[in-house]
Design goal:
The structure holds 2 protein chains of 2 kinds.
Chain A (H helix, E strand, L loop, with lengths): L4 E3 L2 E4 L5 E6 L6 E7 L6 E7 L2 E4 L8 E4 L6 E5 L8 E8 L9 E2 L3 E5 L1
Parallel strand pairs in A: 2-11
Antiparallel strand pairs in A: 1-3, 3-8, 4-5, 4-9, 5-6, 7-8, 9-10, 9-11
Chain B lengths: L2 E3 L4 E5 L4 E3 L2 E3 L4 E8 L5 E7 L5 E3 L5 E5 L4 E6 L8 E9 L8 E2 L3 E6 L1
Parallel strand pairs in B: 2-12
Antiparallel strand pairs in B: 1-4, 3-9, 5-6, 5-10, 7-8, 8-9, 10-11, 10-12
The chains are: A mainly beta, B mainly beta.
């Protein structure tokens, strides 16, 4: 079974530039999560999708971050314009459904460095 | 609101000795508790979970965790540590009774196993 795929693995940009990250979840998983992991901290949820609908985006900085999952499969997370404090690893995860006891399956992450 | 605390930034143990990584949680409903491990430059991998039933849960790689409702704790344990267990460990909780099903992570504990 293929795991959660993310790209790019690494990205370096200047502040005020834009960046996009892509995630393809495990086939058949209805729920997709984007987490931000700042060095030395635990993952913080940015947005959760159930199919192509948003379940929770309360911690997404909507003035600069956006995410979509148009066909209920893969997803894109965009940052525009980037700030220094956005330097982090962006983790994508999926699970069969949102309201369950199941664990999350994580991709390897996309490391962003903002200079 | 749900939360997870991992009181130790780092745990050091000699190979062959038992290890414990601590986790306490706070939820308004019933907790679903998880442990994940993260190796350098990798995503999080699921180790084990507590949903209901026996308070001692066994997981991957010889790890186990004990759920203690009165102390609201879910400590990760292993009888005999290996150098290869050195990694970052995250505790997570889902509040399945309080309405928030979003997985919330602790800040992580770095486990260092010395040869």
């Amino acid at each position: 079974e293929a795991g959660v795929a993310q790209s790019p693995r690494y990205k370096i940009i200047e502040k005020r530039q834009s960046v996009a990250f892509w995630c393809n979840p495990i086939s058949g998983h209805a729920t997709l999560y984007w987490y931000q992991q700042i060095l030395g901290q635990g993952p913080k949820l940015l947005i959760q999708f159930q199919n192509n609908g948003v379940v929770d985006d309360s911690q997404l900085p909507k003035d600069r971050f956006s995410a979509e999952r148009l066909k209920g499969v893969d997803s894109t997370l965009k940052i525009q314009p980037a700030k220094l404090e956005d330097s982090a690893v962006y983790l994508c995860a999926s699970s069969p459904e949102a309201y369950s006891s199941g664990e999350l399956f994580f991709g390897e992450g996309s490391r962003l460095t903002v200079l | 609101a749900q939360s997870v605390a991992q009181p130790e930034d780092q745990v050091n143990v000699a190979e062959g000795n038992p290890l414990t990584v601590k986790c306490t949680y706070s939820v308004s409903g019933n907790p679903y508790l998880f442990w994940y491990v993260q190796y350098p430059n990798r995503g999080l991998q699921f180790l084990l979970k507590y949903i209901t039933g026996d308070n001692l849960v066994k997981g991957s790689y010889g790890f186990e965790a004990e759920f203690n409702k009165s102390q609201t704790s879910f400590h990760l344990k292993k009888p005999s540590a290996l150098v290869s267990d050195s990694a970052l460990y995250f505790c997570a909780v889902r509040d399945m009774g309080g309405g928030s099903y979003i997985p919330t992570f602790g800040r992580g504990t770095s486990l260092i196993v010395h040869p």
